[in-house]
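#struct-help
A.M.: can someone run this one for me? Single chain, 159 residues.
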Amino acid sequence: MGDPQNWLLDIALDYLTLGRAALYAAISKKRKHKIPIRDRVSVSGLRRAGTTHHVPRGLLTRAWVRFLEEDTDGSQADLDEAWEIAERGPMRLHMADIHLYRARLFHAVKPYPWNKHPDGTERGPKDDLKDARALIEKCGYWRRKEELEDAEEAAKNWK
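D.P.: on it. Structure tokens below:
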């Protein structure tokens, strides 16, 4: 019999995959009502599996679901927790993804939840895109290049 931790991880990743597929289907159909997939995004399963490095993936997906459900507080909390884990890692690819999610999801939210640099100066969603670009280039994370460029193009119209 295999290690039970592996089974827990397999199941949690399966739920995450199903949740992401349902999320993409909901987005492609432009559903405006509650998306019945939050339970499929098993952040708790990823935690139980003892694989902290996978938890940000679940948190990012759940943040997107929560944002679409208009739970901006929950979405922000998921992004903040994902950041804490990724920064501690350091998990720079997750950090690049978090910057992209922040900017794409919250660019129109006033005040921008991450509106201060550590030195106290103002920052906004375009700063998150700039930070994402720096990490993507530094790490060679080119699978995010198209998404980054799309976000940068959209940002030209952000106020």
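A.M.: thanks! Residues 4-28 form the longest helix (25 residues).
D.P.: also worth noting: The CA atoms of residues 67 and 75 lie 5 Å apart.
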